[in-house]
Amino acid sequence: MKMWSGRFTHGPDAEFEQWQRSFPFDRVLLPYEVAASMAHASALAKAGVLSAEELAATLFALDQIGREGTPEADDPAIEDVHHYVETRLVELIGEVGYKLHTGRSRNEQIATDLRLYVREQIDEVTRLLAEFASAFVKQAEEAGDSAMPAYTHLQRAEPVLVAHWLLAYVEMFLRDIDRLSDCRKRLNVCPLGSGAVAGTILPLDREAISAQLEFDSPTANSMDATSDRDFAIEFVQVLSFVALHLSRWAEEFILFSTAEFGFLKLPEQYSTGSSAMPQKKNPDALELIRGKAGKVFAEATALFVGMKGLPLAYNKDLQESQQPVFSAAHQMSSMLRVAAGFVTTVELNYPRMQKAASSGFMNAQAAAAYLVRQGIPFRRAHELVGKGVRLCVEQSCELEQLSKEDYALCGIDANEHFYNSLALEEVLAIHNVPGGTAASRVHEALQTAKEKLSQFFGVAHACT
Questions:
Q1: Which is the catalytic residue, given 274, 359, 403, 440?
Q2: How many domains does the structure of the chain reveal?
Q3: 136-155 b/e with 16+ CB inside 10 Å = b?
Q4: Residues spanned by the domain of 295
Q5: In the annotation, is 101 catalytic?
Q6: What is the pLDDT of residue 1?
């Protein structure tokens, strides 16, 4: 029986009936529909709609429906997850099952179910992000004081510690965790009791319902509650940030895995070969992460476009807000699991990175800094060292290989202390500021990252 058929004399067109069904995709909301229905049933009993015996039977049947798991979508008569639960409930306990819908609407039900779903997905993505960031922390610990080139404009710029580079990604993903936390705070209000648009027709205890479902409070306005999907948009927007960061990371690791860089060895567990070229090992996992990021961006766009012209309150268009959320959450969870596995198993080529950090005039700024400490204005020091670089290019050598006479031609008095300032260890050490790549600062940053991540699963896990 349809949940709305009493007013109609004709059944729906067969094609339209199947076309408008949401059960093939919203059935994943079954656990949340059951939980929300249990809270509503308790409120109905408190309001005198259900007797104690009817409440017990209803809760027992709802629990059974939940334990049965996600149903198949093969019954064409079932419209949506709400219709399924009611139909199954009546099968289990008879006419009493029809009482459950007293004082509520599917408009508030889907708004509640979707909030519960998104809340759980936030917790899951947060956990996966923390595990992923912890894999970077572990790699940073293993890197010790190894160095590598840092790049601007994809040109060698200055040397940094490998750990400093890895921790840059940790910062990105910690920001994503903060965004998820903020989103969770805003979504954690309960629409139940909002009715179809104007509020429930019964004196239901909305505070008790909210508390039972672990929401912070009931929603403040019934019209907003039944039509709001800001929380869904915000959630997928945050996932877009995560996807953006994953894609940037994947791109850089793809570059660094090439023979031209050779900074890392692709793990075979996350690579494939070529059907034509026997020698190939391709970064398919990274390329797919980079590609799938676009799908997450697309889901965010779909939500924005779908919502932009909707008047208050509920419109059937909102049914189309579910699949982008489900898709983005699924894509993100799978991407993060693969990404964490990749970072856990990847091997970094420290000797190759260290060698690259010692060439390409990346100590030029350190040379200028030395001159500044001798009282030479930076703009003048920049020009003098630039002349030295030009001379190196002509002689095919590095700054530390120029003679004192060569430096004299550039206007630089190159003494022993000047040459010492060009050594890789000294170049790294002068960046001794919070957030800099000096070894002591990176060790501090590593400890801070471990402490931040420890709150998610314990210090031992974050550090191993």
A1: 274
A2: 3
A3: bbbbbeebeebbbbbeeeee
A4: 107-200+216-356
A5: no
A6: 61
